[in-house]
Predict the structure.
Amino acid sequence: MKKIVASNFKATHTRKSTKEFVEDVDSYLKEKEITNDVFIFPASTALDTFKLQENLTIGAQNGYPVKSGSFTGEIGTLHLDEFEINTILIGHSERRHILGESQKDIVIKYNYFKAMGYRIIYCFGEPLEVKNCGITETLGYILEQFDGIDLSYDNLILAYEPVWAIGTGKSATTEDIALIHKKIKKKVNKPLLYGGSVKVCTLQDILEVPNVDGVLVGTASWEVEDFKKMIYIASKMDKDSKKLICSMEG
Ligand code: PGA
Protein backbone atom coordinates (compact mmCIF):
# COMPACT_ATOMS: atom_id res chain seq x y z
CA MET A 1 0.00 0.00 0.00
CA LYS A 2 1.25 3.48 -0.85
CA LYS A 3 2.10 5.63 2.15
CA ILE A 4 -0.46 8.28 3.11
CA VAL A 5 0.64 11.83 3.95
CA ALA A 6 -1.74 14.19 5.75
CA SER A 7 -1.37 17.76 6.93
CA ASN A 8 -3.44 19.12 9.79
CA PHE A 9 -3.41 22.92 9.60
CA LYS A 10 -5.11 23.33 13.01
CA ALA A 11 -5.66 27.09 13.60
CA THR A 12 -3.00 28.22 11.12
CA HIS A 13 -3.16 29.22 7.43
CA THR A 14 -5.79 31.70 6.32
CA ARG A 15 -8.20 31.24 3.46
CA LYS A 16 -5.70 32.95 1.15
CA SER A 17 -2.63 30.97 2.24
CA THR A 18 -4.60 27.72 2.24
CA LYS A 19 -5.55 28.26 -1.38
CA GLU A 20 -1.93 28.91 -2.35
CA PHE A 21 -0.73 25.88 -0.38
CA VAL A 22 -3.37 23.54 -1.84
CA GLU A 23 -2.71 24.70 -5.40
CA ASP A 24 1.03 24.33 -4.93
CA VAL A 25 0.68 20.77 -3.62
CA ASP A 26 -1.75 19.90 -6.40
CA SER A 27 0.67 21.06 -9.13
CA TYR A 28 3.50 19.22 -7.41
CA LEU A 29 1.59 15.92 -7.41
CA LYS A 30 0.78 16.39 -11.05
CA GLU A 31 4.29 17.40 -12.08
CA LYS A 32 5.96 14.51 -10.20
CA GLU A 33 3.20 12.06 -11.11
CA ILE A 34 2.81 11.11 -7.47
CA THR A 35 -0.22 8.96 -6.75
CA ASN A 36 0.03 8.52 -2.97
CA ASP A 37 -3.05 9.68 -1.10
CA VAL A 38 -2.47 13.16 0.31
CA PHE A 39 -4.85 14.93 2.69
CA ILE A 40 -4.99 18.55 3.81
CA PHE A 41 -7.18 19.65 6.72
CA PRO A 42 -7.56 23.45 6.61
CA ALA A 43 -9.38 25.66 9.10
CA SER A 44 -13.12 25.66 8.40
CA THR A 45 -13.02 29.28 7.17
CA ALA A 46 -10.65 28.14 4.41
CA LEU A 47 -12.72 25.25 3.08
CA ASP A 48 -13.60 25.63 -0.55
CA THR A 49 -14.30 23.67 -3.71
CA PHE A 50 -10.94 22.97 -5.31
CA LYS A 51 -10.43 21.16 -8.60
CA LEU A 52 -7.67 18.76 -7.62
CA GLN A 53 -5.79 15.62 -8.55
CA GLU A 54 -7.80 12.56 -7.59
CA ASN A 55 -5.37 11.60 -4.83
CA LEU A 56 -5.43 15.00 -3.11
CA THR A 57 -8.28 15.37 -0.63
CA ILE A 58 -9.37 18.35 1.42
CA GLY A 59 -10.95 17.34 4.70
CA ALA A 60 -12.56 19.02 7.69
CA GLN A 61 -10.78 19.21 11.03
CA ASN A 62 -14.12 19.10 12.77
CA GLY A 63 -17.86 19.22 12.25
CA TYR A 64 -20.93 19.11 14.45
CA PRO A 65 -23.03 15.95 14.05
CA VAL A 66 -25.98 17.68 12.45
CA LYS A 67 -26.95 18.90 9.02
CA SER A 68 -27.65 22.42 10.35
CA GLY A 69 -29.29 24.03 13.34
CA SER A 70 -28.88 26.17 16.46
CA PHE A 71 -25.33 25.28 17.44
CA THR A 72 -23.44 28.54 17.81
CA GLY A 73 -19.92 28.41 16.48
CA GLU A 74 -20.31 25.03 14.81
CA ILE A 75 -20.70 23.86 11.22
CA GLY A 76 -22.74 20.88 10.03
CA THR A 77 -22.85 18.75 6.93
CA LEU A 78 -24.87 21.40 5.09
CA HIS A 79 -21.75 23.57 5.19
CA LEU A 80 -19.36 20.76 4.34
CA ASP A 81 -21.59 19.62 1.46
CA GLU A 82 -21.31 23.08 -0.05
CA PHE A 83 -17.62 22.33 -0.69
CA GLU A 84 -18.06 18.61 -1.37
CA ILE A 85 -16.08 17.76 1.73
CA ASN A 86 -16.52 14.12 2.73
CA THR A 87 -13.47 13.48 4.88
CA ILE A 88 -13.16 14.42 8.55
CA LEU A 89 -10.79 14.11 11.52
CA ILE A 90 -12.49 12.72 14.61
CA GLY A 91 -11.02 12.17 18.08
CA HIS A 92 -7.99 14.44 17.70
CA SER A 93 -6.27 14.90 21.06
CA GLU A 94 -6.65 18.69 20.97
CA ARG A 95 -10.41 18.26 20.70
CA ARG A 96 -10.41 15.65 23.46
CA HIS A 97 -8.07 17.42 25.87
CA ILE A 98 -8.33 21.15 25.08
CA LEU A 99 -11.88 21.42 23.74
CA GLY A 100 -13.24 18.86 26.19
CA GLU A 101 -14.83 16.30 23.87
CA SER A 102 -15.70 13.16 25.79
CA GLN A 103 -15.67 9.65 24.34
CA LYS A 104 -19.47 9.88 24.37
CA ASP A 105 -19.41 13.08 22.25
CA ILE A 106 -16.89 11.48 19.92
CA VAL A 107 -19.01 8.35 19.44
CA ILE A 108 -22.04 10.50 18.52
CA LYS A 109 -19.91 12.41 16.03
CA TYR A 110 -18.38 9.22 14.62
CA ASN A 111 -21.76 7.56 14.14
CA TYR A 112 -23.21 10.61 12.45
CA PHE A 113 -20.38 11.04 9.97
CA LYS A 114 -20.26 7.29 9.38
CA ALA A 115 -23.97 7.33 8.53
CA MET A 116 -23.23 10.16 6.09
CA GLY A 117 -20.55 7.97 4.43
CA TYR A 118 -17.61 10.23 5.31
CA ARG A 119 -14.05 9.02 5.23
CA ILE A 120 -13.09 9.23 8.87
CA ILE A 121 -9.56 9.64 10.18
CA TYR A 122 -10.00 8.50 13.75
CA CYS A 123 -7.29 9.69 16.14
CA PHE A 124 -6.36 8.15 19.45
CA GLY A 125 -3.37 8.14 21.78
CA GLU A 126 -2.29 8.24 25.38
CA PRO A 127 -1.07 11.13 27.56
CA LEU A 128 2.39 10.99 29.16
CA GLU A 129 1.23 9.86 32.59
CA VAL A 130 -0.39 6.82 30.98
CA LYS A 131 2.64 6.04 28.82
CA ASN A 132 4.81 6.18 31.94
CA CYS A 133 2.68 3.46 33.53
CA GLY A 134 3.71 0.96 30.83
CA ILE A 135 2.42 -0.80 27.75
CA THR A 136 -0.51 -2.60 29.42
CA GLU A 137 -1.92 0.69 30.73
CA THR A 138 -1.25 2.39 27.41
CA LEU A 139 -3.10 -0.27 25.45
CA GLY A 140 -5.93 -0.26 27.96
CA TYR A 141 -6.25 3.51 27.55
CA ILE A 142 -6.24 3.23 23.75
CA LEU A 143 -8.88 0.50 23.82
CA GLU A 144 -11.13 2.84 25.82
CA GLN A 145 -10.81 5.31 22.95
CA PHE A 146 -12.20 2.58 20.69
CA ASP A 147 -15.27 2.21 22.92
CA GLY A 148 -18.40 2.68 20.84
CA ILE A 149 -16.39 3.11 17.62
CA ASP A 150 -17.30 0.81 14.73
CA LEU A 151 -13.83 -0.32 13.71
CA SER A 152 -15.21 -2.37 10.83
CA TYR A 153 -16.37 0.79 9.02
CA ASP A 154 -15.08 0.61 5.43
CA ASN A 155 -14.15 4.24 5.11
CA LEU A 156 -11.95 4.36 8.20
CA ILE A 157 -8.31 5.37 8.61
CA LEU A 158 -6.77 5.22 12.08
CA ALA A 159 -4.15 7.60 13.44
CA TYR A 160 -2.08 6.80 16.51
CA GLU A 161 -1.08 10.14 17.98
CA PRO A 162 0.42 10.00 21.47
CA VAL A 163 -0.67 13.18 23.25
CA TRP A 164 2.82 13.81 24.64
CA ALA A 165 4.27 13.84 21.13
CA ILE A 166 1.81 16.27 19.57
CA GLY A 167 3.17 19.75 19.03
CA THR A 168 6.03 19.11 21.45
CA GLY A 169 8.81 18.49 18.94
CA LYS A 170 9.36 15.16 20.70
CA SER A 171 8.21 12.32 18.44
CA ALA A 172 7.65 8.81 19.74
CA THR A 173 10.65 6.58 19.06
CA THR A 174 10.42 4.12 16.21
CA GLU A 175 10.40 1.36 18.87
CA ASP A 176 7.38 2.94 20.60
CA ILE A 177 5.60 3.31 17.28
CA ALA A 178 6.44 -0.25 16.20
CA LEU A 179 5.05 -1.73 19.40
CA ILE A 180 1.76 0.18 19.43
CA HIS A 181 1.17 -0.17 15.70
CA LYS A 182 1.72 -3.92 15.84
CA LYS A 183 -0.79 -4.30 18.67
CA ILE A 184 -3.38 -2.10 16.99
CA LYS A 185 -3.01 -3.74 13.59
CA LYS A 186 -3.57 -7.13 15.17
CA LYS A 187 -6.89 -5.87 16.43
CA VAL A 188 -7.97 -3.67 13.52
CA ASN A 189 -6.88 -4.17 9.95
CA LYS A 190 -7.26 -0.60 8.72
CA PRO A 191 -4.74 1.89 7.35
CA LEU A 192 -2.86 3.14 10.41
CA LEU A 193 -1.07 6.49 10.48
CA TYR A 194 1.38 7.82 13.05
CA GLY A 195 1.21 11.44 14.18
CA GLY A 196 3.14 13.50 16.72
CA SER A 197 6.09 15.77 15.89
CA VAL A 198 6.89 14.07 12.59
CA LYS A 199 9.52 16.10 10.74
CA VAL A 200 11.02 15.95 7.27
CA CYS A 201 14.18 14.39 8.74
CA THR A 202 12.38 11.70 10.75
CA LEU A 203 9.77 10.83 8.16
CA GLN A 204 11.54 8.06 6.34
CA ASP A 205 12.51 6.21 9.52
CA ILE A 206 8.92 6.42 10.74
CA LEU A 207 7.48 5.27 7.42
CA GLU A 208 9.84 2.30 7.49
CA VAL A 209 8.38 1.04 10.77
CA PRO A 210 6.25 -2.05 10.10
CA ASN A 211 2.49 -1.36 10.15
CA VAL A 212 2.92 2.37 9.59
CA ASP A 213 0.79 3.22 6.56
CA GLY A 214 1.43 6.93 6.63
CA VAL A 215 1.64 10.05 8.76
CA LEU A 216 -0.59 12.82 10.05
CA VAL A 217 1.57 15.92 10.45
CA GLY A 218 0.89 19.26 12.11
CA THR A 219 3.64 21.81 12.72
CA ALA A 220 6.28 20.46 10.34
CA SER A 221 3.85 20.40 7.41
CA TRP A 222 2.81 24.05 7.50
CA GLU A 223 5.59 25.23 5.20
CA VAL A 224 4.55 24.02 1.79
CA GLU A 225 8.12 23.22 0.71
CA ASP A 226 8.49 20.92 3.72
CA PHE A 227 5.17 19.25 3.07
CA LYS A 228 6.17 18.64 -0.55
CA LYS A 229 9.43 17.07 0.67
CA MET A 230 7.39 14.77 2.87
CA ILE A 231 5.18 13.78 -0.03
CA TYR A 232 8.27 13.15 -2.14
CA ILE A 233 9.88 10.94 0.51
CA ALA A 234 6.66 8.96 0.93
CA SER A 235 6.34 8.48 -2.83
CA LYS A 236 9.93 7.26 -3.16
CA MET A 237 9.44 4.72 -0.42
CA ASP A 238 6.97 2.89 -2.59
CA LYS A 239 9.60 2.45 -5.24
CA ASP A 240 12.80 1.80 -3.33
CA SER A 241 14.10 2.23 0.17
CA LYS A 242 17.06 4.35 -0.81
CA LYS A 243 17.90 6.69 2.08
CA LEU A 244 16.79 10.20 1.28
CA ILE A 245 18.50 12.95 3.08
CA CYS A 246 16.98 15.96 4.71
CA SER A 247 18.67 18.45 2.51
CA MET A 248 17.49 16.84 -0.70
CA GLU A 249 15.77 18.90 -3.27
CA GLY A 250 12.42 18.11 -4.72
P1 PGA B 1 2.39 17.90 15.29
O1 PGA B 1 0.81 17.64 15.25
O2 PGA B 1 2.96 17.31 14.04
O3 PGA B 1 2.53 19.39 15.37
O4 PGA B 1 2.90 17.20 16.51
C1 PGA B 1 0.30 16.40 14.82
C2 PGA B 1 -1.20 16.38 14.92
O5 PGA B 1 -1.76 17.01 15.82
O6 PGA B 1 -1.87 15.74 14.09
Q: What stands out?
A: Residues 8, 161, 166-167, 195-198, 216-220 surround 2-phosphoglycolic acid (CB under 6 Å). The domain at 4-249 is CATH 3.20.20.70 (TIM Barrel).
